[in-house]
């Protein structure tokens, strides 16, 4: 049986990647550890994985957090590898870790917690490498272990972090797959999960700050509330400016259309650490921001650094596509076409950004350059620039696709900058103009109208537009739009 819904929830996959990449920080920050373990986790947080392993090997093996960091370091190396053959060659490591765990004299609460973490992190690896059924079985095992710990050791805080996270993730699976959760005896409940996570953040236990980070990422990527994400992650960043925390804070800021602030903290990180930064994704983010700022030359410069330092395949297709867009904006069409072709030939399409790049290249869906400028300026929160671009667009010169996109981009600009009535008008025009085309403009416009009316307590109108989203099929970003619609419908109910 192929569990296709796991492929459908790529936003959940991305969220899990960020969580598992960043969680060790506060496991150790408030735990009394020997010096080598402290140094090991500091190196991990700066993405210095080899030196992290060096100090980890010299840490006390009797400390459960030494074992935890070993789990995390091992899974992280496989996560960033983006090599299916290497994953298959190293699948035995999961069982080796489970066997090794049994050799230590950890208390039962920590033993069960560590076992559930092995299952959770290897579920992510299996998801990434296409083993959906095995991944779901591992998630079920992680859930059962965490649930067991909560029942047997109700005062053991780490279990609430694990079970709370899984309750939220399962609660966000599409309703049509609830029968699978029932079959495996799993309950998803977003509200309960958030309460369990908040229980940890409000405690004095060692996982309180880590769980705050998880809650921030949940709000940014799955719960349509990037402002809340920024509020939660900022205090963590203020206490610790390590590269991974900087990366997550920058992503949250960008989600909240605060790209200039995100650029400032990335630049600060570059001044603190040797160049090039050990985490190549920061250069990708910086390229995104310069594209939003209207500086395609600097965007290309940072995108190229990312391409030259990123070892995996994720975001490669999207990066070549974005460089092609930069040259398109610069009126250098030969270079633009060259990079679109590189996008077609390189990388893979396993996340939303790469999938959209693949769709755009294969469908020939390249918009008028001013629409790209309007889009990216709005995304970054550069509203003055966006409005100037908006005023300079002649809709009579646009084809049907670009005219529909024009109203959609205009709606997004007005919505983000607080002109709600103009946003509503342009979202409605978008829906009218799209007709039966499979663009994502109309379904996302319906979603945004639902969110607007929900915020104004117009529940009937909100529900009407949120239901409209389900009328559209097989369009880019469909999975994330449907995921956000599900969250929004829960708010209306």
How would you characterize the overall build of this protein?
By secondary structure, the protein is mainly alpha-helical. It has two domains: 4-263, Alpha Horseshoe (Serine Threonine Protein Phosphatase 5, Tetratricopeptide repeat); 280-366, Alpha Horseshoe (Serine Threonine Protein Phosphatase 5, Tetratricopeptide repeat), CATH 1.25.40. The protein has helices at residues 4-8, 10-22, 24-29, 35-45, 49-56, 64-81, 84-89, 92-101, 108-128, 132-152, 158-171, 178-183, 190-201, 208-221, 226-239, 243-255, 259-272, 281-293, 296-309, 316-329, 333-345, 352-363, 369-380, 383-391, 400-417, 420-434, 441-455, 459-468, 478-492. Residues 1-9 and 22-33 have low confidence and may be disordered.
Number of strands: 0
CATH class of the largest domain: Mainly Alpha
Order of helices and strands: HHHHHHHHHHHHHHHHHHHHHHHHHHHHH
User: And the CATH topology of the largest domain?
Assistant: Serine Threonine Protein Phosphatase 5, Tetratricopeptide repeat
Q: Tell me which oligomeric state these chains represent.
A: single chain
Which sheet architecture does the biggest sheet show?
none
Radius of gyration: 23 Å
Fourth-tier CATH superfamily name of the largest domain: Tetratricopeptide repeat domain
Count of helical regions: 29
Shape: globular
Helix content: over 70%
Report the portion of residues in β strands: under 5%
Question: Low-confidence parts, pLDDT < 50 over ≥5 residues?
Answer: 1-9, 22-33
User: Alpha-carbon distance between the termini?
Assistant: 33 Å
């Amino acid at each position: 049986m192929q569990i296709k819904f796991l492929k459908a929830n790529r936003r959940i996959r991305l969220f899990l990647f960020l969580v598992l990449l960043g969680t060790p920080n506060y496991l150790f920050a408030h735990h009394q550890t020997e010096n080598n373990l402290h140094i090991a986790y500091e190196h991990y947080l700066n993405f210095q994985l080899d030196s992290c392993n060096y100090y980890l090997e010299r840490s006390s093996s009797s400390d459960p957090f030494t074992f935890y960091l070993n789990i995390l370091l091992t899974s992280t190396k496989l996560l960033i590898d983006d090599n299916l053959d290497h994953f298959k060659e190293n699948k035995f490591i999961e069982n080796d870790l489970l066997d090794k765990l049994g050799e230590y004299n950890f208390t039962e609460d920590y033993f069960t917690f560590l076992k559930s973490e092995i299952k959770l992190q290897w579920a992510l690896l299996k998801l990434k490498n296409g083993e959906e059924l095995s991944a779901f079985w591992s998630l079920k095992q992680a859930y059962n272990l965490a649930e067991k710990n909560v029942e047997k050791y109700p005062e053991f805080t780490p279990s609430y972090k694990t079970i709370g996270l899984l309750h939220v993730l399962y609660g966000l699976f599409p309703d049509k797959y609830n029968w699978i959760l029932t079959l495996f005896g799993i309950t998803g409940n977003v509200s309960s999960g958030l309460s369990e996570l908040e229980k940890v953040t409000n405690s004095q236990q060692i996982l309180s700050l880590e769980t705050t980070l998880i809650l921030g990422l949940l709000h940014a990527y799955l719960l349509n509330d990037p402002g809340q994400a920024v509020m939660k992650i900022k205090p963590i960043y203020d206490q610790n400016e390590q590269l991974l925390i900087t990366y997550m804070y920058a992503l949250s800021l960008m989600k909240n259309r605060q790209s200039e602030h995100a650029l400032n903290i990335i630049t600060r990180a570059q001044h603190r650490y040797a160049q090039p930064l050990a985490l190549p994704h920061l250069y990708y983010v910086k390229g995104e921001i310069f594209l939003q700022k209207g500086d395609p030359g600097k965007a290309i410069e940072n995108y190229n650094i990312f391409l030259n330092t990123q070892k995996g395949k994720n975001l490669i297709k999207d990066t070549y596509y974005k460089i092609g867009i930069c040259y398109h904006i610069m009126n250098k069409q030969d270079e633009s076409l060259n990079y679109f072709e590189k996008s077609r030939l390189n990388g893979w399409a396993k996340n939303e950004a790469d999938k959209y790049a693949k769709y755009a290249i294969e469908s020939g869906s390249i918009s008028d350059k001013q629409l790209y400028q309007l889009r990216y300026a709005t995304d970054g929160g550069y509203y003055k620039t966006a409005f100037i671009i908006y005023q300079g667009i002649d809709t009579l010169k646009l084809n049907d696709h670009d005219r529909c996109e024009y109203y959609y981009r205009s709606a997004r600009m007005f919505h983000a900058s607080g002109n709600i009535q103009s946003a509503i008008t342009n979202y409605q025009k978008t829906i009218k103009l799209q007709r039966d085309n499979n663009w994502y403009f109309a379904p996302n416009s319906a979603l945004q109208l639902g969110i607007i009316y929900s915020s104004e307590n117009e529940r009937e109108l909100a529900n009407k537009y949120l239901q409209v989203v389900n009328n559209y099929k097989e369009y880019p970003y469909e999975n994330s739009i449907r995921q956000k619609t599900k969250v929004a419908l829960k708010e209306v109910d």
